[in-house]
Amino acid sequence: MALAQLQLLVKFQQEKEDKLRALYQGALANYQNMQQKFDGLAAYRTDYLQQTHQRGQQGLASRQFNQYLNFISKLDKALSQQQQMVQQAKAAADQRMRQYLEMQKKRKALEHLIEKEQLVQQAKAARQEQKLLDEIATQQFFRRVS
């Protein structure tokens, strides 16, 4: 494959890699956002339980106690749903990272191939130059001898 074609292919791969990196960064930001929401909700639940415990020590009517239990149950359900969203966001971020790393690997392989091709072309040019110099030296030798 010609060097120019390889360089064009690397440029194309770099563009795809840049897009995948942006997608990964977006997925990672989404995961972090989901995790922060989960952490906030978990902290709120803990605070609410502490408040409920303090109020319980002061005495609660059974209706109020049932309301607190219902609300805690709703918080638990919300935490469970948020945890699922965190796991899905993490899986998506991990998948995007793998895609990005795979594209980066392909680009680096192409760059390595370009380097090898350049070395081959440099060696070929050096051999041609040496052959030309040898021919000139041979011609000069025969001119001196004749």
Please give a structural write-up:
The protein is mainly alpha-helical. Helices cover 96% and strands 0% of the residues. The longest helix has 84 residues, at 62-145. The radius of gyration is 34 Å and the shape is rod-shaped.
Q: Report the mean per-residue pLDDT as an integer.
A: 93
Question: Based on CA inertia axes, which overall geometry fits?
Answer: rod-shaped
Helical proportion? Answer: over 70%
Write the H/E string, N to C: HH
Round the Cα radius of gyration to an integer and report it. 34 Å
Strand content: under 5%
**What is the CA-CA span between the terminal residues?**
47 Å
Which residues form runs of ≥5 with pLDDT under 50? none
Number of DSSP helical runs: 2
Q: What structural category do the secondary elements indicate? A: mainly alpha
Q: How many beta-strand elements?
A: 0
Biggest sheet, open or closed, and with what strands and sense?
none
What's the helix and strand layout?
Layout: H1 3-58, H2 62-145
Helix pairs in contact: 1-2
In short:
The protein has 146 residues and is an all-alpha fold. The protein is built from two helices and no strands.
List keywords for this structure.
0% strand, 146 residues, mainly alpha, rod-shaped, 2 helices
